[in-house]
Specification:
heterotrimer, A mainly alpha (425), B mainly alpha (384), C alpha/beta (388), B: 384 residues, mainly alpha, ABC transporter involved in vitamin B12 uptake, BtuC, two-stranded antiparallel ribbon, 15 helices, C: Rossmann fold, Rossmann fold, 7-stranded mixed sheet, 13 helices
Chain lengths: 425, 384, 388
């Protein structure tokens, strides 16, 4: 292993070969989980290991733009997975600014996601006719891009509104208060169907307009790909998410190295010292809060368009916690960490746990008997309650506890953070 | 309109009081742990839940064996409290102590662990219940003795109304005085003057609404509500004795004040922290059983909302302060019941009962912003 | 951990490879959580139908299987499950969901893949009013059920001051609104209309009832809330007659409410087994197989699955191959069946042409209660703008 690390040529070759094998395997078996995981592993290795930049771009581009879409046509669930991963990765990057850089524990992050989602859902569906004087809704799908920007602004404003009382509080209290305010946003979404019907309450809003993709289908046709609308949308959203992730990552890197980024880290490390150095605490914190919120808002609008349906149930505490788990798993403050954390948790939650449940289900239905000689068990007796997919809270909880005890700096630690977490008191 | 509100007032406050006792007992767990560790023990709501579920199981399992409902309740309280205390100690040993031993300075680390423990416990209980019964909703059995309803004499209601109205007028008078002081530069009125003014206004009020106040107010109370109040009072009294009169109590207070110095005096802080979790957990578990007894259905996710409310109560009373937590619980219970019942009337149905949970959060934020030390409590400087 | 995951993944990969002529029907209903009692009945009913049909399909050279899924009565989970189901090519039809609020967004997903859905329980009008070709239901609709309940309440029980509570779901709020409209039309006074998500402490609502003094309380929602509400109402001395929609149609309702259930009414779209002479044989088989008595939704799920199976069988016998999803969707809409719940035929938008509605009285605190009224009513018409 050590030898491999020291020899960049050999390393590059190994990674390239693994990526190639995994890709072919995935293309031949688009419905099974293992080749998919292996492909992702190859992608990850290519991006994280010290190999030449051109090879990174080549492998990354090939897997993300060719292999996964090609496999996705055979199994559209891969697109679903990719889109969800992307949405969560962008949100994890946003929360990373708040929790990772500025050290503000925000447990109500899903609230901004909700604000973004409702921003487009209300105007991109007939819902707005309920309270607007002009009966011109739903707005045509072209407005989606505009509303994504509006969602960014609205979410940032919400961030300021929620943040201005909350951020005057210190550490622990901030967590509880953001949790409370996150719930407040959900309860409001659930109850603002009267006296004036803004959100349609618990019934949710459906159907929501999607951005038109006729041009995209026409474009694909030029490449010889004939796709129906139902087939083209997943690909379109997948590519859109990739683009957004790219933008968000760039913004994040720029922020990290900017004056604000350094100020945030200073506040995280020691508030009193930071104030002594002339950093205005409250505005700086508020800026972090609003920045994080705006990322979430943009993804909310995308989520609404992708899902065609928005209801308050999508924005519960568990969502906020899930995004927090992503950040913690990857490493607080670390940009590649946030993306890795998002991918791991999403795939775990959306695919692996559910696949395991299905597998157990199959065993139960088949009445499979496990016979180890000394131990016999008929799976037909397996209680319904024992389905891994239902225990996401347990999985998240375990990840949080174990990471905090054994590796608080995360899988891919931010360099500066390692020092602090390991510091002796 | 106002007549209805007045007539309901005693019943609303009574229900709020009962709920408040449950909150108070949970709030004590938060406040004690915060006192010794300066940690918001997020998992405390799940310790409460574990007690509620264990109590339900006790009731269900022993219903056929023990005929006397009171004995059954006593056993359920004991087992519920013990299970919760064991869970609390385990949580401290397995999750929090390793962090303390490593000595991280980052305040987020223990808090995130606590959240993780909370989520983990929810699903752990769900898994256990699921494997055991293939269902995780447990119903507390009903007993005729507990369900028996008693009418309360009217004078209790009249006194409640009078007191509430007096408090209301006192606040108004205080505010009016403040305005005068602020804008007219008057000298502040004496406390006694304010009280007398409020009392006078109250008498006028009672006279004006005598047809409502002295009519039948229809206050009833159930045996199980009485039990809740009695058990809670006993526990609160016991805790007070424990903290102020026993060696353990002195040690706990010493560790809360300064763990390092306490350890120099021959107190092992780890042992004391463990005991604190035990006491807090036991109270939480008992609260869980009482909650189940009152509201019938319990499940692994039942702790979240009461937990948040109880935390609010602890902050309201001044976190770290034991009397404060009890007072905060009672006040919050009554405020919540007032909000939940009256909001619909006041907004003519536009804002329903659903907003009662928001109300608690709003109170939390206001308290934290304007009086972070709570109703009872001293302002502490930041430890640097 | 890693090894376990790896082994699991391997097994999954292997199981994906080993596929032959398998046809799967999926049930989607809450199998966990507080509504599991109703969801479980849907699953078991469909399972019985599938297992009965398996030998016949074996002869035709196909393996028929059931894929039970859990939507946790949560629209978000429902959509996630739907997205997984549509990517499994072996799944040809869905029997489900239980909750209207889950069925609507989930069926938006099925629609894109023309995957047929036959619902044994969804009563919300919007389920079929969208005129989707693939969405059908065997039960009646809330815009008949709610008004039928109101008519019974006002005309036969003499309700004058009605307090309405709903659970703030698409289903509960929807049926409560229908009830309210009809009750007001008939001259009763609605003194309160409140939504709540509360599951434990209903005191704030009960205090409001104390002030409004209703003689009748209607709860639009599911039994787990209704039971607790009713119990606490009686504890606090509210004696008003209690009524709810088909969400109360479960033995769990009586279990939770206890003695308080005595005297309550509910309307339902799935009648008790005794009302269906043909269901007797099925009920015996069910009890022998699963060790419990089938409740109303079980026989509706049984018939739902049988509609799918009949269409499948017709197609396979004729074409000697498994149908595509679109073909099966078209066929199911045309299929008629002499089911245990009576004659099943769908109208142009997927509603059962003529559905039964029952008013049930719990004379004792024992499930099922006594049917006091049966109404047969054709599905209300909707103008379908364009068949999508």
């Amino acid at each position: 292993m050590k030898k491999l690390r020291e020899n960049p040529l050999l390393l590059s070759a190994v990674i390239a070969i693994v990526a190639l094998v995994a890709s072919f395997w995935l293309l031949n078996n688009p419905r099974s989980t293992l080749p998919f995981l292996l492909t992702l592993g190859a992608l990850l290795a290519a991006l994280l290991q010290p190999i030449p930049k051109w090879l990174k771009v080549l492998i990354g581009g090939a897997i993300l733009l060719l292999v996964i879409p090609a496999a996705g046509f055979k199994n559209s669930f891969l697109f679903e997975l990719g889109i969800q991963t992307g949405i969560y990765a962008a949100m994890a990057l946003g929360l990373n600014v708040v929790v990772g850089l500025a050290g503000l524990l925000d447990l109500g992050y899903a609230a901004f996601f909700a604000v973004g989602a409702y921003t487009w859902a209300i105007f991109g569906s007939p819902q707005a006719n309920e309270f607007m004087p002009w009966k011109i809704f739903p707005l045509p799908g072209e407005y989606f891009y505009l509303f994504m920007l509006i969602a960014v602004v609205v979410a940032a404003i919400t961030g300021v509104v929620i943040g201005s009382p909350a951020l005057r509080l210190k550490g622990d209290y901030l967590a509880i208060v953001t949790l409370g305010l996150g719930e407040v946003v959900r309860v409001l979404a659930n109850n603002l169907d009267q006296p004036i019907n803004f959100t349609n309450g618990p019934q949710g809003i459906t159907p929501i307009q999607r951005p038109p993709i006729d041009w995209f289908i026409a474009l694909l046709e030029k490449f010889g790909l004939q796709l129906s609308r139902a087939e083209a949308y997943p690909l379109f959203f997948y590519l859109l998410v990739l683009v957004i992730i790219g933008i968000v990552t760039l913004v994040n890197i720029r922020l990290d190295r900017s004056r604000f980024g350094r100020a945030w880290i200073a506040i995280r490390e020691d508030e009193t010292a930071a104030r002594a150095m002339g950093i205005p605490l409250f505005p700086t914190k508020l800026l972090a809060f609003a920045t994080g919120a705006s990322f979430s808002g943009a993804m909310g609008a995308l989520f609404a368009a992708k899902q065609l349906y928005v209801s308050p149930e999508s924005f519960t505490l568990i969502q906020s916690i899930m995004i927090l788990v992503m950040v913690i798993l990857g490493g607080m403050g670390s940009i590649p960490g946030a993306i890795l954390g998002a991918a791991t948790v999403t795939i775990l939650n959306v695919d692996l746990l559910k696949s395991a449940s299905d597998y157990l289900n199959d065993l139960r239905n088949a009445g499979f008997t496990l016979d180890l000689g000394f131990f016999k068990y008929n799976f037909a007796n397996l209680p319904n309650q024992l389905e891994p997919a239902k225990y996401e809270r347990m999985v998240f909880g375990l990840i949080m506890i174990l990471m905090m005890i054994y590796r608080p700096e995360g899988i891919i630690p931010e360099r500066r953070h390692v020092l602090e977490m390991k510091e002796e008191s | 309109m106002l007549e209805i509100l007045i007539q309901l007032l005693p019943s609303v406050l009574l229900e709020g009081l009962i709920l408040g006792f449950v909150y108070a007992m949970i709030a004590l767990g938060y406040t004690m742990v915060y006192g010794v560790l300066e940690l918001i023990n997020f998992a405390h709501s799940e310790i409460f839940m574990a007690g509620a579920v264990a109590g339900a199981e006790t009731f269900i399992l022993l219903k056929g064996v023990i005929a006397n409902p009171f004995l059954l309740l006593a056993l359920a309280l004991l087992i519920g409290g013990t299970v919760a205390a064991v869970v609390a100690i385990l949580v401290e040993r397995l999750a929090y102590r390793p962090l303390r031993k490593r000595g991280t300075t980052n305040r987020l680390v223990p808090l995130i662990t606590a959240i993780g423990v909370s989520f983990f416990l929810q699903d752990l209980v769900r898994l256990i219940e699921g494997l055991w019964h293939n269902a995780f909703y447990r119903r507390y059995p009903s007993f005729a003795v507990f369900e028996a309803t008693y009418n309360l004499p009217n004078w209790i209601g009249v006194i409640t109304i009078a007191l509430t109205v007096w408090v209301g007028f006192w606040v108004l008078a205080y505010f009016g005085d403040w305005l005068l002081r602020r804008f007219k530069n008057r000298a502040p009125a004496k406390g006694r003057t304010l009280s007398l003014v409020a009392a006078g206004l109250t008498l006028v009020f009672l006279f004006l609404y005598r047809h409502v106040v002295f009519a039948d107010l229809g206050m009833t109370i159930q045996m199980k509500s009485i039990l809740v109040i009695v058990v809670s009072l006993a526990m609160l009294y016991g805790l007070n004795w424990l903290v102020h009169k026993t060696k353990l109590g002195i040690a706990i207070r010493a560790v809360a004040q300064d763990a390092q110095t306490a350890s120099l005096m021959g107190i092992d802080p780890d042992v004391i922290v463990s005991r604190t979790f035990l006491i807090g957990g036991f109270l939480g578990g008992v609260a869980g059983v009482l909650f189940g007894l009152l509201y019938t259905l319990v499940h692994p996710y039942v702790g979240f909302i009461p937990g948040i409310k109880a935390f609010t109560a602890a902050v309201l009373g001044g976190i770290g302060n034991i009397t404060g937590a009890a007072v905060g619980g009672l006040v919050l219970g009554m405020l919540e019941m007032l909000g939940g019942t009256y909001l619909t009337f006041l907004t003519n149905g536009a804002m329903g009962t659903e907003y009662k949970d928001i109300l608690a959060f709003m109170i939390l934020i206001f308290i934290l912003l304007f009086r972070p030390q709570g109703i009872i409590g001293q302002q502490l400087g930041e430890k640097v | 951990m890693k090894k376990v995951l790896l082994a699991l993944a391997l097994a999954l990969g292997a199981s994906a490879l080993a596929q032959g002529n398998v046809i799967k029907i999926a049930t989607v209903s809450p199998l966990s959580g507080e509504q599991a009692a109703l969801g479980e009945m849907i699953k078991l009913g469909a399972q019985l139908a599938v297992e009965e049909a398996q030998p016949e399909f074996e002869k035709l050279g196909f393996k028929l299987e059931l894929a039970p899924q859990d939507d946790q009565a949560n629209p978000d989970v429902g959509v996630a499950v739907a997205r997984r189901l549509v990517t499994d090519p072996e799944i040809v039809a869905i029997v489900g969901h239980l909750n209207t609020g889950v069925a609507i967004p989930s069926s938006e997903v099925y629609k894109d893949y023309q995957l047929a859905m036959v619902s044994p329980a969804n009563t919300g009008p919007a389920v079929t009013d969208r005129c989707y070709l693939n969405v059908n239901r065997l039960v009646g609709r809330d815009d008949v059920q709610g008004p039928a309940g109101a008519e019974f309440a006002v005309k036969e029980l003499g309700a004058k001051r009605i307090f309405i509570v709903h659970d703030k779901t698409t289903y509960g709020q929807g049926v409560a609104e229908q009830f309210k409209k009809k009750a007001e039309e008939l001259g009763a006074q609605v003194v309160g209309f409140v939504g709540t998500e509360e599951k434990a402490n209903f005191q704030a609502l009960i205090l409001q009832m104390k002030a409004k003094k209703p003689d009748f309380v209607y709860f639009g929602g599911i039994y787990h809330q209704a039971g607790v509400l009713l119990k606490q109402m009686r504890e606090r001395g509210i004696k008003a007659t209690f009524m709810g929609p088909d969400g109360l149609d479960s033995s769990k309702f009586v279990e939770i409410a206890g003695e308080a259930a005595k005297g309550a009414y509910y309307t339902t779209v799935a009648g008790p087994i005794e009302k269906y002479p043909k269901a007797k044989a099925m009920a015996e088989k069910f009890e022998k197989k699963f060790g419990k008595k089938p409740e109303s939704f079980a026989i509706y799920a049984y018939d739902s699955a049988n509609v799918v199976i009949k269409a499948l069988k017709d197609f396979v016998a004729y074409a000697k191959r498994a149908p595509t999803r679109a073909e099966l969707s078209m066929l199911i809409r045309q299929t008629t069946l002499e089911g245990v719940t009576g004659y099943v035929a769908f109208d142009y938008k997927g509603d059962r042409k003529k559905a039964d509605y029952f008013v049930v009285h719990l004379k004792e605190a024992k499930y099922p209660g006594e049917v006091v009224k049966v109404i047969s009513f054709p599905a209300p018409a909707t103008k379908c703008e364009a068949i999508k």
